[in-house]
Amino acid sequence: MNIKEKLLLIQKISGVTQEEMAHKLGVTFASLNRWINEKSKPRAKMLEKIERMYMEYSGQTRVSDAEIETKKKDILIVQKAHPDVIREIISNPDVKDQFYLSLTYNTNRIEGSSLTEGETAEILFENAALKNKSLAEQLEAKNHQAALIYLFEHISHGEINEQFILKLHSILLNAVRSDAGTYRKHSVRILGTDVPTANFLKIPDLIKQLILDINKNETDIFTQIAATHARFEQIHPFGDGNGRIGRLLMHAMALKRNFPPMVIYQSKKIIYKNRLYSAQMNNDLLPLAGLICDATLEGYRILERKW
Known about the structure:
Order of helices and strands: HHHHHHHHHHHHHHH
Strand content: under 5%
Distance between the termini: 35 Å
Radius of gyration: 20 Å
CATH topology of the largest domain: Fic-like fold
Pfam family, one: HTH_3
CATH class of the largest domain: Mainly Alpha
CATH architecture of the largest domain: Orthogonal Bundle
Shape: globular
Low-confidence stretches: none
Mean pLDDT: 95
Number of strands: 0
Site (Important for autoinhibition of adenylyltransferase activity): 111
Domain HTH cro/C1-type: 15-52
Protein name: Fido domain-containing protein
Organism: Candidatus Yanofskybacteria bacterium RIFCSPLOWO2_02_FULL_44_18
């Protein structure tokens, strides 16, 4: 893969404009444009920088154990300044709305939605009906917001149990699918991977066991979330919406332990998918746990109005 191909792939994965990519690389737009159009070549140090960025966005960079442990310690320090995260979210409408927007936009984009962040905001906060976008995409945005509203209200006093999971799914797929709120009754494959999914007859028992593990008071919550998220996605209990429900469960687990919802940006989609695959197929949880740490810190940025 040459430099032009790597730069275009970085832009596609990250969703940034060429101007934004030039800023990230510390060069002018004109220089970047010349490289993409193959009118000139970057110097050696810039080639190294582009390679590092390519490795990061393609999910090939492995974070060391020491780096992840440092992130965990940083999170625990930040946590002390936020003694009651769910109350802080609910009592601050601007913070709550930013979580609605960021979580809804990014989770749906990860699943292939074409809505921009601005269009998502119009749908969520202005009840806009966009003529140039499908009704299904707009319903999914509103439904995800409704699922978050339910989650925020439920999690301060309710349990993470099977009824909670089925309720989230019924809200998320309301008026989108006729099987909303029920487990699948057929075999499925996860598109684009060779990850085996559960026999549909075993789903209720597998979910019951998973719930027991979700509610364990593990010392390392980040690895616990990585492990249970990987298992939920591999069980793949629903006909549709498994990725979004899985990430909603991550938020619920985090809030139960007084951490903020985890913001996985759509620009991290390939990294997220690759690390999830590694956790499922190789039981390699560390990279996914590292991504969850990053997503937690992004949640704190919203709490602290640094968006």
